[in-house]
Amino acid sequence: MSSLSQSVQTSDVRQLGINPNHWYVVARCTEVTNKPVGVILWHQAIALYRDSTGKIHALEDRCPHRQVKLSHGQAIANELECAYHGWRFNSSGECTAVPYLAANQKLPNCQIRRYPVKEQDGFIWLFPGDAESAVEPMGLPEWEHLNYIASVAVINCQAHYSYLIENLMDMYHGHLHQDLQAWAAASLKDIDEDNHRVDAHYTAQSYYKIDKIWSISQLFFPALRKLHPEPLDVSYIYPHWQSTLGKDFKIYCLLCPVDETQTKAYLIHFTSLNAFWRLHKLPVWFRRFIKDSLFNAAKKLLDGLVVQDVEMIEEEQQAYLQNPQRRNYELNRALISVQKLMRSQVERLG
Ligand code: FES
Ligand SMILES: [Fe+2]
């Protein structure tokens, strides 16, 4: 490939790779039980499993014997056993046992890659980079906090991750969700940006105000909602996204880019109960009970938003594949900043 075509390729944001020196989210904690789970993070197949103490490990999802997926196998004590011939691998990725090894045979000297992995705030964070640097997972401080009710939706879209991030950073697309009443009349006021993040500050009209205990029912009954102005801040904190609408809502999108035309992500919505100061005086067990009983209260809304967004994002991807040279007309300068950040994160890898 000539250097010219190479530079054309990397400058096309729809072909960009990822910067692996960050923590990505590959699964929810509840998805990985004692059965291994296979996930894909940017072309890399990874097997997640829990050992007998409940600790999570991540190994390359490939048995070096015959190249089948290790995630078909089972966890035994601290090791992962391949389904096919029963070879076993420890959490460092070394082969530790072959069931039919003859007395005069040595264990094969094969090694598969292990990935640093952490469980934090309900999700499994994985570091696909070379050197585990000082960076920490972004984390969701509201996940355990008793004043926040969480709802989770999964996004699986056949599109490059840039389409998803641009959708999330462009609040003018509230137009698409009018029937779901998420927000209205967004207006971009200001942008802050550096090498790690883009913060776009909008004002918008919100339909929800959570100031009485029964106002949670606004999540279920549209007739109770009234439009009122609130600040709407959205941030691309590479490689993830977060947003706050007024004081009552916080949303995160945690990304697992699969390849150039596929992205998995988790959308986590938090409704704040901070306005109910009396609630804070109640016993912790009761507050925990409220938090747990209302888990996924906003899921229907989230799922509805995701269906609408994914339809648009996938159509953009298809249009790009059919006519990659066609240019968009972009009026939202937050999206220019977002593309700049995506490029610089990948280009700094050299
Ligand atoms: S392919 Fe895994 S043990 Fe044979
Ligand atoms: Fe949306």
Automatic annotation (TrEMBL):
One Pfam family linked to the record: Rieske
Locate the Rieske domain: which residues? 23-126
Provenance organism: Nostoc piscinale CENA21
Record protein name field: 3-chlorobenzoate-3,4-dioxygenase
Keyword field contains Metal-binding = yes
Iron found in the keyword field: yes
GO molecular function terms listed in the Swiss-Prot or TrEMBL record: 2 iron, 2 sulfur cluster binding; dioxygenase activity; metal ion binding; monooxygenase activity; oxidoreductase activity, acting on paired donors, with incorporation or reduction of molecular oxygen
Q: Which UniProt keywords apply?
A: 2Fe-2S, Dioxygenase, Iron, Iron-sulfur, Metal-binding, Oxidoreductase
